[in-house]
Amino acid sequence: MQYIIYDLEFTVSRNARYSSEIIDIGAVKVVQGDDGLYVADTFHSFVRPSNRPVLSTDTVQFTGITQRDIDAAPLFPEAVKEFIAWLGTDSPYYLCAWGPDDRQKLVSHCRTHHVDLGWIHNTNDIQKQISRLLGSNGKYRQLSLSQALELCNIDFDGQQHRALDDAVNTAQVFMYHFDRITLVHNAADDEESRGSKLVYSSPEEEQEQYSPFGNLANLFKDR
């Protein structure tokens, strides 16, 4: 079994007429070895947005991704084709992300670009499970990735809001708590609870009581 820990970065859009687009795909392939889990391989690709190819200032500030990065990148259909080839669909795998947004955006992009959804299966939101595991005093509070790393005494490695770096750090938390995580089987069309990847939270915020606008109003906050 392979555990694909992936992360996506999107354009930041303040205009309701334009939905955000995927501009960065990063993933880590975790496998079981004789001495436990280890990172076997990584994947990374920038993605050139098709609707609004010029990045906004907010997007550049939030992600650190430049227009030069994007101009040289493939469009989504080609980038996701490379991603699918890398993960390999002949061997069983789970697709794990920090929060529900990545799965939702991946499915919607594949539908928009007429990419078959068969490879999007066994998707798991590990943010939800790990937030429950690390909750204090019996209270649930959705944790950002930075908060989860801190509670595991793991330093963030790399640059936040870059897909591969976020995937690598998510994989560290995943492997740290692997024995306590329950992974589920599903398909792309299965209904899942809706929500947003946490970008900002305060110590007082509990389950579903965080700011839904944190990723726009607090561009430089940790997730």
From TrEMBL:
Keywords attached to this entry: Exonuclease, Hydrolase, Nuclease
InterPro entries registered for this protein in UniProt: 3-5_Exoribonuclease, ERI-1_3'hExo-like, Ribonucl_H, RNaseH-like_sf, RNaseH_sf
Record-annotated Exonuclease domain positions: 2-183
Keyword Nuclease among record annotations: yes
One Pfam assignment: RNase_T
Cited SUPFAM superfamilies: Ribonuclease H-like
Region (Disordered) residue spans: 194-223
GO molecular function: 3'-5'-RNA exonuclease activity; nucleic acid binding
Domain of life: Bacteria
Keyword RNA-binding: no
Name this polypeptide is given: Exonuclease domain-containing protein
Organism: Paenibacillus polymyxa
